[in-house]
Amino acid sequence: MSARPRLVYERWTDPAAGDILDVADVDLVRLDLTADSEQGWAALETAHGYQVATRTDVASAIDGAQWLVGPSLVERCTRLLAVCSAGAGYDVIDIDACTRAGIAVCNNSGPGAEAVAEHALGFMLDLAKKITVADRALRSGPLGDRLALRGSQLLGKTLGVVGLGAIGSRLVELCAPFGMEVVVFDPYVDEATAAGRGVQLVPLAELIERSDFVQVTCPLTKETENLIGKAQFSAMKPTAFFITTARGPVHDETALHDALVSGGIAGAGLDVFHEEPPRPDNPLLQLDNVVATPHTAGITVEAARDIAVATATQWQTIFAGGMPPRLLNPDVWPRYCERFHDIFGFRPSATTILERRG
Hints:
- α12 links the parallel β10 and β11.
- The chain is an alpha/beta fold.
- It is built from 14 helices and 12 strands.
- A 7-stranded parallel beta sheet has the order 8-7-6-9-10-11-12, sandwiched between helices. A 5-stranded parallel beta sheet has the order 2-1-3-4-5.
- The chain is 36% helix and 12% strand.
């Protein structure tokens, strides 16, 4: 090799990633969001790989958005060969800009699916059984009439899943003991795949109207931004719950608030917001029929380690000249290979391109 691979990262989900890469002949450089920005740019401008900081991580940093992979970063960092997001979501990366520049884009879909799916199920049980509402009432006292805290059951209800990727598919499996009818909206899933998973593919409008729980697990893309808005919330059952572990901009927060206040829907479970972390005065956080977490659905001890190992392994594959197992822009491959050869002196070897799904 004519160069030693240099990888810039903000932080690992678990030290296991660093342990793996420390012995992989990779030059690791930490991006300090609190340091002078020129220090960060000096690191990135010499980097071949960038493990991208999350949107939540950069929110508290001065000019934090500059560390997300947009056109300006791509133009400035001319040696970059590959960028990877920390989890399944990749909205922190401008895929089109990277593809034009010959930069491979990867995510880490899969390892955190169990954690997020369990979190989504937890929201469903919490909202239906009014666990958080009852907890708040009990602590504020006096309790009053317990019948006012009467909840409902999941058994026999209809679950609508928007996005049947790794997370949505696992959620369907977790809900099987409840005997729920499952309808799915996902334009990238065919009938045979849906049938194999025991779900029914339907248009989004039908899913919204039929579901007792509308669960959003899709990635944030140009197609999904503002996918759930005023019209969709208005069409939901007044007894239905809206739950999202996707990304905030997939739904309209103002329209959701209006639906919750007016009684248009029964409640919401939110792990994501337009602004993260959300401000304490966010109107949604003032409502009793909202259960919220600060984008922690995928943060478990097990998931953090699994994601770290998958992250490090993918970088090992990249720098060894293999095709990344979770490549999101396969069209970049020919140009990427040319750039890789120019830097490292040998051409990568193409392997099976995995389906672009989260």
